[in-house]
Amino acid sequence: MTTTAAPVITGRAAARATALSKVYGEGETRVVALDQVSVEFHRGEFTAIMGPSGSGKSTLMHCMAGLDTVSGGSTTIGDTELVGLKDKDLTRLRRDHVGFVFQAFNLLPTLTALENITLPMDIAGRKPDKEWLDRVIETVGLSGRLSHRPSQLSGGQQQRVACARALAGRPEIVFADEPTGNLDSRSGAEILAFLRNSVRELGQTVVMVTHDPVAASYADRVVFLADGRIVDELDRPTADGVLDRMRRFDAKGRTS
Ligand SMILES: Nc1ncnc2c1ncn2[C@@H]1O[C@H](COP(=O)(O)OP(=O)(O)OP(=O)(O)O)[C@@H](O)[C@H]1O
Ligand SMILES: [Mg+2]
């Protein structure tokens, strides 16, 4: 039994895509979901990905997290190139170095909050780092709810369990696909504050897909996708600034 995963990060990028392409289907059903995307997610930074429905946000995340295969280009987590990795190594990389948060919380109903949080490590046969786990649980504000099952928790609390689960293994990077999409604005704000704190206070790296300019304003940087390409970036975003960029894309889309 190993207690910690070997770190794979040495440089500034926690994850990097280079000329990454993803094509679904063939012939008439062919869809270019990602068209030569090059992007870097810096260590210790909170990045938001925005763009219209169908622009490739989830595909980018899935390819960079090793959940989906790519059609061209390369993508790395830390120093590890994902393209060409054997299934076994990819599974291990995902398990030990990547955290996920989905729009649907994906908790196991028969397990308590704490059991859900430590499940990936239990499966991997890794012992949780107690001090780290305590910090994650404290940051996520779940200390009083650890023995509750998902059905006994609110939506916001369930998503906080999912966030704690993603961070429990101290991954190189956390990918969150619309983590506040199913939450009311107050619960959503709690999740966003948690994700931001996990970056600021715990030094984590978080990449989040969102449609909400307010959610994006919690990030250090926003990357905009359209038609499978990165079309813009914004540092230290405000909700108004993000909205303004989105309006510009809309106007362009209508006129071109
Ligand atoms: N498994 C698949 N098979 C075929 N086409 C797919 C598949 N998954 C995604 N696509 C297509 O790829 C494109 C990008 O999809 P993707 O899910 O990445 O968009 P998105 O930006 O996440 O959209 P949304 O905001 O609606 O979640 C879309 O045109 C979609 O129809
Ligand atoms: Mg999506």
Automatic annotation (TrEMBL):
UniProt entry tagged with the keyword Transferase: no
Signal peptide start and end residues: none
Entry GO CC: membrane protein complex; plasma membrane
Entry keywords, A to Z: ATP-binding, Nucleotide-binding, Transport
PROSITE patterns, sorted: ABC_TRANSPORTER_2
Pfam families (UniProt xref): ABC_tran
Gene3D superfamilies found in the cross-reference section: P-loop containing nucleotide triphosphate hydrolases
Residue stretches making up the ABC transporter domain: 15-252
A GO MF term: ATP hydrolysis activity
Superkingdom as given in the UniProt entry: Bacteria
Keyword Transmembrane helix: no
Name the UniProt record assigns to this protein: ABC transporter ATP-binding protein
Species per Swiss-Prot/TrEMBL record: Peterkaempfera bronchialis
